[in-house]
Amino acid sequence: MRDMLLQCAGASAIIVAVIHGILGETAVFARATISPERLRILLRLVWQAGTVAWIGCGGLLIAAPSMGSEPARHWTVATAVVVFGFAAGANALATRARHVGWVMLAGVVVLAAAGY
Could you say which of 48, 50, 51, 79 is the most buried, measured as most Cβ atoms within 10 Å of its Cβ? Predict the structure, then answer.
């Protein structure tokens, strides 16, 4: 059961990351007027760096049950809980909890912690 919870957390993390990346490109940066152009490119790349990092964490959560090492599993889960927990808290704080993103990120934290 713990393994399935971790794999669900990983799949959820990847889904949240993909949504984050798509909405960033289609809703945020498509409408934003940011100049100079170099700054706009930098902000887009930093935004997508978060997306890539979350996908990587999701992949590690999916792989954690097959690592064959209990310490590796614990460190992977602990790192993912901190990363997604910080993202959920920052999102809730910045949007005054009016954005659904923090709920989705918190869901990843709950699933990962339950599979610890």
Answer: 51
